[in-house]
Design a protein that fits this description.
150 residues, mainly beta
Length: 150
Protein backbone atom coordinates (compact mmCIF):
# COMPACT_ATOMS: atom_id res chain seq x y z
CA UNK A 1 0.00 0.00 0.00
CA UNK A 2 1.23 3.50 -0.83
CA UNK A 3 1.92 5.80 2.07
CA UNK A 4 -0.69 8.54 2.45
CA UNK A 5 -3.51 6.74 0.62
CA UNK A 6 -6.62 5.49 2.33
CA UNK A 7 -7.20 1.77 1.99
CA UNK A 8 -10.84 0.89 1.32
CA UNK A 9 -12.34 -2.50 2.04
CA UNK A 10 -12.70 -4.61 -1.09
CA UNK A 11 -16.53 -4.59 -0.97
CA UNK A 12 -16.58 -0.76 -0.93
CA UNK A 13 -14.19 -0.38 -3.85
CA UNK A 14 -16.59 -2.37 -6.03
CA UNK A 15 -19.82 -0.59 -5.13
CA UNK A 16 -21.54 1.80 -7.55
CA UNK A 17 -21.64 4.76 -5.15
CA UNK A 18 -17.89 4.71 -4.69
CA UNK A 19 -17.25 4.44 -8.42
CA UNK A 20 -19.68 7.32 -9.10
CA UNK A 21 -18.05 9.56 -6.49
CA UNK A 22 -14.56 8.84 -7.72
CA UNK A 23 -15.34 9.19 -11.44
CA UNK A 24 -14.82 12.32 -13.52
CA UNK A 25 -18.27 11.92 -15.10
CA UNK A 26 -20.34 14.95 -14.04
CA UNK A 27 -23.15 14.54 -16.58
CA UNK A 28 -25.88 14.05 -13.97
CA UNK A 29 -24.94 17.04 -11.81
CA UNK A 30 -27.40 19.87 -12.23
CA UNK A 31 -26.00 23.36 -12.06
CA UNK A 32 -28.18 26.34 -11.18
CA UNK A 33 -28.78 28.88 -13.93
CA UNK A 34 -26.13 31.57 -14.16
CA UNK A 35 -27.25 34.71 -12.40
CA UNK A 36 -25.29 37.68 -11.21
CA UNK A 37 -24.72 37.30 -7.49
CA UNK A 38 -23.69 40.31 -5.44
CA UNK A 39 -20.79 39.91 -3.08
CA UNK A 40 -21.63 38.59 0.37
CA UNK A 41 -19.55 41.44 1.79
CA UNK A 42 -22.34 43.86 0.98
CA UNK A 43 -24.66 42.02 3.38
CA UNK A 44 -22.48 42.76 6.39
CA UNK A 45 -21.05 45.99 7.76
CA UNK A 46 -18.36 46.63 10.33
CA UNK A 47 -20.49 48.93 12.43
CA UNK A 48 -19.43 51.99 10.49
CA UNK A 49 -21.93 53.81 8.34
CA UNK A 50 -22.60 52.37 4.92
CA UNK A 51 -21.05 55.31 3.09
CA UNK A 52 -17.79 55.32 5.01
CA UNK A 53 -14.62 55.82 3.06
CA UNK A 54 -11.14 57.19 3.35
CA UNK A 55 -10.49 60.87 4.02
CA UNK A 56 -6.95 60.91 2.54
CA UNK A 57 -4.79 58.59 0.50
CA UNK A 58 -1.47 57.78 2.21
CA UNK A 59 0.47 60.14 -0.05
CA UNK A 60 -1.94 63.07 0.48
CA UNK A 61 -1.14 63.88 4.11
CA UNK A 62 1.51 63.92 6.84
CA UNK A 63 1.08 63.77 10.60
CA UNK A 64 3.33 65.95 12.74
CA UNK A 65 3.39 66.06 16.53
CA UNK A 66 5.40 68.54 18.59
CA UNK A 67 6.60 66.34 21.44
CA UNK A 68 7.29 69.31 23.71
CA UNK A 69 3.95 71.13 23.39
CA UNK A 70 1.95 67.97 22.51
CA UNK A 71 0.33 69.72 19.55
CA UNK A 72 -0.74 67.42 16.72
CA UNK A 73 -1.09 68.46 13.09
CA UNK A 74 -2.34 66.79 9.95
CA UNK A 75 -0.91 68.56 6.90
CA UNK A 76 -2.66 67.84 3.61
CA UNK A 77 -2.98 69.23 0.09
CA UNK A 78 -6.53 68.16 -0.72
CA UNK A 79 -9.35 70.55 0.27
CA UNK A 80 -11.41 69.19 3.18
CA UNK A 81 -14.83 70.43 4.27
CA UNK A 82 -14.90 71.70 7.83
CA UNK A 83 -17.71 69.31 8.73
CA UNK A 84 -15.50 67.07 10.89
CA UNK A 85 -16.85 66.65 14.42
CA UNK A 86 -13.94 64.73 15.98
CA UNK A 87 -11.15 62.21 15.44
CA UNK A 88 -11.01 58.94 17.39
CA UNK A 89 -7.77 57.03 17.83
CA UNK A 90 -8.02 53.28 18.42
CA UNK A 91 -4.92 52.01 20.30
CA UNK A 92 -5.80 48.39 19.48
CA UNK A 93 -5.21 48.71 15.73
CA UNK A 94 -3.58 52.19 15.61
CA UNK A 95 -6.24 53.58 13.28
CA UNK A 96 -7.85 57.02 13.33
CA UNK A 97 -11.56 57.31 12.55
CA UNK A 98 -12.97 60.63 11.34
CA UNK A 99 -16.47 61.41 12.65
CA UNK A 100 -18.38 63.97 10.60
CA UNK A 101 -21.10 66.25 11.94
CA UNK A 102 -23.74 64.43 9.86
CA UNK A 103 -22.94 61.12 11.61
CA UNK A 104 -20.87 59.54 8.83
CA UNK A 105 -17.55 57.91 9.67
CA UNK A 106 -14.41 57.71 7.57
CA UNK A 107 -10.95 56.27 8.01
CA UNK A 108 -8.15 58.85 8.11
CA UNK A 109 -6.26 56.88 5.46
CA UNK A 110 -3.31 55.34 7.31
CA UNK A 111 -2.46 53.82 10.65
CA UNK A 112 -0.30 55.83 13.05
CA UNK A 113 3.38 54.92 12.95
CA UNK A 114 5.10 53.85 16.15
CA UNK A 115 7.26 57.00 16.37
CA UNK A 116 4.22 59.31 16.43
CA UNK A 117 1.84 57.28 18.62
CA UNK A 118 3.09 58.15 22.14
CA UNK A 119 2.89 61.88 21.42
CA UNK A 120 -0.27 61.85 19.30
CA UNK A 121 -2.34 60.26 22.07
CA UNK A 122 -1.38 63.05 24.49
CA UNK A 123 -2.88 65.74 22.25
CA UNK A 124 -6.39 66.93 23.09
CA UNK A 125 -7.09 68.33 19.63
CA UNK A 126 -5.61 68.08 16.17
CA UNK A 127 -5.03 70.91 13.71
CA UNK A 128 -6.03 69.87 10.19
CA UNK A 129 -4.05 72.20 7.93
CA UNK A 130 -4.27 72.46 4.14
CA UNK A 131 -0.97 73.42 2.53
CA UNK A 132 0.15 74.56 -0.89
CA UNK A 133 3.83 74.76 -1.83
CA UNK A 134 4.79 74.32 1.84
CA UNK A 135 2.60 77.20 3.05
CA UNK A 136 -0.52 76.85 5.22
CA UNK A 137 -3.57 78.16 3.35
CA UNK A 138 -6.46 76.88 5.49
CA UNK A 139 -7.01 74.95 8.69
CA UNK A 140 -9.22 74.15 11.64
CA UNK A 141 -9.01 72.39 14.99
CA UNK A 142 -10.76 69.10 15.76
CA UNK A 143 -11.08 67.36 19.16
CA UNK A 144 -9.22 64.06 19.58
CA UNK A 145 -10.81 61.18 21.50
CA UNK A 146 -8.74 58.17 22.56
CA UNK A 147 -10.75 54.93 22.72
CA UNK A 148 -10.09 52.66 25.71
CA UNK A 149 -7.57 49.91 25.08
CA UNK A 150 -9.11 46.44 24.98
Amino acid sequence: MLKGYLALPQHCANCQVYSKIMSDDNSDIQTPPATKIDSMKSAFTSGKSANSGILFQEDEFDIFVNKITMEAYIFHTKPVAQDIDRLEYDPNDHSVTVFKKDGNQMDLGAKLQWLVRPYFIKAREVAIVQTKDGEAIDGFMVPLVIRPKA
